[in-house]
Amino acid sequence: MARSVGLFGGTFDPVHNGHLAIAKAFLDSPHIDELWVLLTPYPPHKQNDQQSHYKMRLNMLEAAFADFTKVKISTIENELPKPSYTVQTVRYLKKEHPETTFYFCMGEDSLAQFHTWKHHEQILEECDLLVAHRPGESHDDVDPDILSKVHFVDHQPLEAASSDIRKRKREGISISGYVPEKVLAIIKKNQLYST
Questions:
Q1: Is residue 182 part of a domain?
Q2: Number of domains within the chain
Q3: How does pLDDT run across 100-138, given as a tens digit for each residue?
Q4: The Cytidyltransferase-like domain covers which part of the protein (predicted)?
């Protein structure tokens, strides 16, 4: 069956309300029927004690998106050969789902850095980009060849970053309102991001 699917990847440590808001923006666009959230394993060079195990991040993702009907949480990047590059993931999914049109989803801040991604030209050969547009952002510094493959979706960003949330938690500052309640419960139960 022909369908269009957005691929939204990240380490989600933790998944927060900003991620949910951007996911809704992608789903509200006319471009995709479903959103597949790809949980990225940590590259070996980024491992440290402050980062959560893959399974814990997966639990938080599943809790956060439990009420979304058109979202699928995918562990494919943990199953493919390491290191896992975006182009490998997209090619694998296209082979497995030949009748599906895929878009790679990202925020506008990621678009500004996209030219630095490994094999970024090859990614654009495989799929277009779906980018959540921040009001007032300019794309003057983005390569026109990249922009030609971009579809912008309207988005009012929530100012939240996983690194800031981890920092607040380590400093004993409340993170209520930054993450979904179900995710907050997992963080508290497992004492994540504590010093």
A1: no
A2: 1
A3: 999 999 998 899 899 999 899 999 999 999 999 877 777
A4: 7-168
pLDDT digits (tens, 9 = 90+) for 61-112: 999 999 999 999 999 999 998 887 899 999 999 999 999 999 999 998 899 8
Rounded Cα distance, 66 and 72, in Å: 9
- Please report whether residue 170 resides in a domain: no
Tell me the CA distances in angstroms from 29 to 6, 26, 117, one per residue in order: 10, 5, 25
Closest CA to 156 of 22, 65, 30, 64: 22
To which residue do tokens 């139960």 refer?
A: 189
Supply the CATH number for residue 60's domain.
3.40.50.620
Distance CA 184, CA 186 (A): 5
The label of the residue with tokens 């290191």 reads 83
Judge contact between 26 and 133, C-beta under 8 A. Answer: no
Residue 171 lies in a domain: no
Identify the helix (H) or strand (E) that includes residue 7.
Answer: strand 3-10
Q: Which of 6, 8, 25 is CA-nearest to residue 155?
A: 25
Residue ranges making up the domain that contains 57: 3-162
Q: Is residue 167 part of a domain?
A: no
